[in-house]
Amino acid sequence: MDELLEQVPGFGQCGSCLFNTSGPAELCFACARRTMEPLAARRCMVCDRPYAPDETTCGNPLCNRSDRWFSWNFAISMRTGQLKAAINRYKYDERWGWALIFGRVVAGFLEEQGGLFREFDIITASPTYVGPDGRSFDHTRMVLERAAAEVPPGTVWPFDITGEPLIVKTGPTPPMVGNGYQDRRRIAEGPLRDALGVTRDVRGQRALVYDDVFTEGLTLNEVGRVLRLAGATEVCGVTLCRQPYGGAALPGLSTVWAADLEVSCARYAAARGSTSGTGSA
Known about the structure:
Number of helices: 9
Largest sheet: 4 strands, parallel
Strand order of the largest sheet: 1-6-5-2
Mean pLDDT: 87
Radius of gyration: 18 Å
CATH class: Alpha Beta
CATH architecture: 3-Layer(aba) Sandwich
CATH topology: Rossmann fold
Oligomer: single chain
Distance between the termini: 39 Å
Shape: globular
Order of helices and strands: HHEHHHEHEHEEHEH
Low-confidence stretches: 247-259
Strand content: 5-15%
Helix content: 25-40%
């Protein structure tokens, strides 16, 4: 692998890479990792938000709310540099070729963290509405389709890529981008909640939801809500990156799901060999 890495131009210059269409997922993942900003060693085990030196409680409001429906999200890196630019080109400039690269990165990450991710019964995409006033393509599911094709031979992951998606978004919703937290929350708990649906039986299943960017988790929380109400036993997230975040710490978590969430976060931390705290340390 080291010899191959010496031959690649680097993440962000994938179009000129000799292995652009033939390289293994492991190579793309290793190449991307060289330029990606890693997650902080000391961070929240719910949302990957870095802790300041004097912090013991996560400043992300959702990590401390009483109605959190997902256990945790695991981001591959922070949303900075070349990765941020590549995601923007893919989502907003419709440079669809990035789906292959992102799919390889996701496949490589799943393999690297197999001890954690193998526990899930289904890996599904955060829903995208394709249609009038929506997107022109399903950018999240397309990445999962590429990831499924790029995993090592003989490897099987429970990707939700055939037929109707497990989670659907039935209409357009106001954009989250550019809004403050309270407005984003109103969008999530209003139009987004009303637009989400589950298409088949998920009772007793653990679901892993893929998305490109995790900000504070409002979208994942609504996806988690609809899945949990449909019978899923646990919902977690995996994303290409985590949006840098700043905010004041809030009171600790108190919820009917609190015990289960704390157990899941502890298992998550142990799987990564981390000493970081949960949402409310």
